[in-house]
Structures are given as structure tokens and as C-alpha cells.
Design goal:
Strand content: under 5%
Shape: rod-shaped
Oligomer: single chain
Mean pLDDT: 84
Length: about 170
């Protein structure tokens, strides 16, 4: 059952749970490669966090609007016996501060997003070679009839050249 249709706060709880899951997935562990192994992953993560924070001021404001509406309708009480409007005014002040800080956070994440964009990965290449043996500057160093690079060409065991290009004295 989709509870977001009847309980809009479920969407906010889901967002909080998604951030918690991200925190667990990216927690640094010294015995493992980083969960964000390439700058592009950091770029995408910062972008998503930026978008999340850019949407927070509206969500925060709408909570305040709901409280104002309830107060104006006279539908609020206070468990401490005080005037509920005083509590609403206090809440509104804190929500206003939260909205301002969320905007500031979004601006910082926007700057971080721009700052990470020129970064490229220069670590070891764990991807298999796309170039088959003999193309470009590739020299086959495979042994046996079937080479790991996918070719089945005969190569000199000393210079790794094809027989027609080999100058080695056997």
C-alpha cells in the first residue's frame, strides 16, 4: 500500500532513509576500495545531494504553512497550557532559519559540484584491453596457441613479433 498518498510525511522519511543507506554504502573501510571509486561518482553524489537540499526550503516552508493554517482555524492546543500561537511563532522562527541554512547548503553543494567537474581518474586501469594483439603499439606477450588478448597468431617468444617481422636468430 502506498502510504505517501495518505501520509505525505512518508516521503520525507523515505528521503531520510535513502540518505542513511547512502551513508552506510559509502562509509570508508580501509580494507576495501572506495564506494565512490571515480570522480564521476562523486560528481553524481554531490549533484543528488545538491538537488535534495535545493528542495528542502519548500518542504520546510510547507510544514510552517500547515501549522499556520491549523492555528488560524483554531485547531491547535498546547500540552503545557500555554498559547499555541506562541509555540507556532517559535516553530516558524526555527523553520525560517532552517530554510536559510538549507539554501546556504545548496549553494555550497553547487560550488562543490562545479569544483569536482574537472577531476579525472588517473589510477590503475582495471578494465581489460580493448585492443587486440598487434594493433597500435600493443605487443602480445601471451604464451601458447590461444592468446589471452584473443588472437591466435603465432609470435616469436623473444620479440613477440609475427614471424614475417621477426629478426631474431633462432
Amino acid at each position: 500500500m502506498d502510504t505517501t498518498a495518505t501520509d505525505p510525511t512518508q516521503s520525507v522519511r523515505d528521503a531520510a532513509e535513502a540518505v542513511r543507506a547512502f551513508n552506510h554504502q559509502t562509509f570508508p573501510r580501509p580494507d576495501q576500495t572506495p564506494a565512490l571509486p571515480y570522480p564521476a561518482h562523486a560528481y553524481d553524489a554531490i549533484s543528488a545531494l545538491k538537488t535534495l537540499t535545493q528542495r528542502m526550503p519548500q518542504a520546510i516552508e510547507q510544514v510552517g504553512t500547515a501549522l499556520d493554517t491549523l492555528a488560524n482555524l483554531g485547531h491547535l492546543g498546547a500540552s503545557d497550557g500555554e498559547d499555541p500561537n506562541r509555540h507556532v511563532a517559535n516553530v516558524q522562527g526555527f523553520l525560517l532559519t532552517a530554510m536559510e541554512q538549507a539554501r546556504g547548503l545548496a549553494q555550497c553543494l553547487d560550488l562543490a559540484h562545479s569544483a569536482v567537474s574537472p577531476l579525472t581518474y588517473s589510477g590503475p586501469d582495471d578494465e581489460p584491453e580493448d585492443e587486440p594483439c598487434g594493433e597500435g603499439m600493443c605487443q602480445c606477450s601471451c604464451v601458447g596457441v590461444l592468446h589471452a588478448c584473443g588472437c591466435d597468431c603465432p609470435r616469436c617468444p623473444y620479440c613477440q613479433q609475427r614471424p614475417e617481422n621477426c629478426d631474431c636468430d633462432d
